[in-house]
Amino acid sequence: MIQGNFIQRAIQEDLGTNIHLLHTRYPPEPGGYLHIGHAKAITINYGLAEQYGGLYNLRFDDTDPTKEDMDYYVDVIKESVRWLDYDFKDRVYFASDYFQQFYEYALVLVKKGLAYVCDLNAEQMREYRGTLTQAGKNSPYRERSVEENLDLFEKMKAGEFPNGAKTLRAKIDMTSSNMNMRDPVIYRIIHASHYRTGDAWCIYPIYDFAHPLGDAIEGITHSLCGLEFENNRPLYDWYIENIGGFAPKPRQIEFAELHLTNTILGKRNIRKLIADGVIEDWDDPRLLTFWGMKRRGYSPAAIRNFCEEIGVAKAHSKVDIAMLEHFVREDLAPNAKVVMAVLDPIKLVITNYPEGQIEWLEMPNNPKNPELGTRQIPFGREVYIERDDFEEVPPPKYHRLYPNNEVRLAGAYFITCTNVVKNENGNVVEIHATYDPETKSGSGFTGRKVKGTIHWVCVQNAVNIKANLYDYLVIDDENEEIGYRFNENSLMVAENAVAEPSIKDATENDRFQFMRNAFFCLDVKSSAPNKMAFNRIVEIKSSYKPN
């Protein structure tokens, strides 16, 4: 029985009982950083190959020697895919591996009278190409003989012409309603050294030519790609059919690319934000690039689960970023260590607690996961609490600390506020309280109950930290024609935050839930020797409701 999404159904129809012969690939251009949209494409290609027991290739489209730092981006992309926990088992290939084969395939087309050398420059070619509503017209060089085209193409390869002087074009149909079929360029002259092949070539294939033939060479059965390549499919098939001799013949199937609310994925827009100083770099935690998500604290498992859940579609739609956050939260909740940290501290003095005494309280590392064990937390006469956990004049239904009200300090004792200390401006700078020693957590005390529990950090053992409070990069508007509106509050920094001493052992791979606040991770990049920095990953709670 054929089942699954439209891609799975097509694969099953094509391969039948030989479903294990499925062979997919992910073909990135080594010219930038991967983002969440690429994660979706990788998940689809890798996931299907793994599901059906097939093969998966990682192939770099490095056909343009003018692209800078391709070797750097090759390493970046390899590391990115590995970070996502997808193992390509050393099945790493490069379009440049096939330059000689591409050249020979081009000769096949020339010899069949299906390709010709054209002398039109780029501007003239655009003019001859026509428009969406107007047919193109044939190049004056279209009817050159096979012999002349072979001679000229060989001279192009030998470096006898300057850049832009000639191109090799496919001879298809200048009146086609599909602009991609109007005698597209196959080869262009570029006198530039390639980072892998050096100066061996001065003619380089166009992506639309190299892409299907790279698939055919590698035995790819299904080329799964974004919907933006839908109009290229007839050209993809034309090259495969007219060069011939390929078994299996790869089949291109398109799916809708990923669009998310409240974020920016486009390289051009991100580069501008970096140039304008709005964000730091490609690893800014507000970005959904791989390195931005890694630095933000997103786990590979959460990203994979999200990509699998959204599935594939034939039409573009926008996914609520809260859905991604839901999977991040689902992964963090049972695995993150719960610690106490105070982001906006105010001192609380417990006046009847012995001066100089420190006792160590045992607390679970994660109440929802006993396997994570426990830790010892220092408690003393002076502690920090959150400034907004105290109100001198409380609003209705306020159950935290205020004069003469009793609350529990988490994992410790009941305290009652007795008075406050104010500065010359009338602002509260210190809170005084008393504690009831009979109410220690875990003692079995049942004499009375309190409605509020607040977290705290012992002053004597507090670790000074900085908390980077990240929010959405852009504000989504119903009217998208106005473009992006940058969120001016996308980063707020709590410079004077404090945390319990166990935080000093944090590593880059650790994830924490700051009690009653949010999930955080250590940010090595913005940390200083005397102050660790932590990035807010995601809030503890969300209004998002999964289906």
Walkthrough of the structure:
There is one protein chain. This protein has 547 residues and is α/β, with parallel strands linked by helices. Helices cover 25% and strands 25% of the residues. It is built from twelve helices and 29 strands. A seven-stranded mixed sheet has the order 12-27-28-29-23-26-13. The chain has a seven-stranded mixed sheet with strand order 21-18-19-20-14-17-22, with no helix packed on it. Strands 4-5-6-7 form a four-stranded antiparallel sheet. The longest helix is centred in the N-terminal third of the chain and has 16 residues, at 36-51. The protein is elongated, with a radius of gyration of 31 Å.
How confident overall, as mean pLDDT?
94
Q: Could you give the count of β-strands?
A: 29
Task: Name the strands of the widest sheet in spatial order.
Answer: 12-27-28-29-23-26-13
Strand content: 25-35%
The description of the largest β-sheet is:
7 strands, mixed
In angstroms, what separates the terminal alpha carbons?
Answer: 27 Å
Essential attributes:
547 residues; alpha/beta; seven-stranded mixed beta sheet; 25% helix
Please outline the helices and strands.
Elements: H1 6-15, E1 23-26, H2 36-51, E2 55-60, H3 70-83, E3 92-94, H4 99-111, E4 115-118, H5 122-129, H6 146-157, E5 167-170, E6 185-189, E7 203-205, H7 207-218, E8 222-226, H8 233-243, E9 251-255, E10 259-260, H9 267-275, H10 290-296, H11 300-310, E11 318-319, H12 321-332, E12 337-339, E13 341-342, E14 345-350, E15 358-364, E16 374-380, E17 382-386, E18 406-409, E19 414-422, E20 428-436, E21 453-454, E22 457-458, E23 463-470, E24 474-475, E25 485-486, E26 491-499, E27 511-514, E28 518-522, E29 532-539
Parallel strand pairs: 1-2, 2-3, 8-9, 10-11, 12-27, 14-20, 18-21, 23-29
Antiparallel strand pairs: 4-5, 5-6, 6-7, 13-26, 14-17, 15-16, 17-22, 18-19, 19-20, 23-26, 24-25, 27-28, 28-29
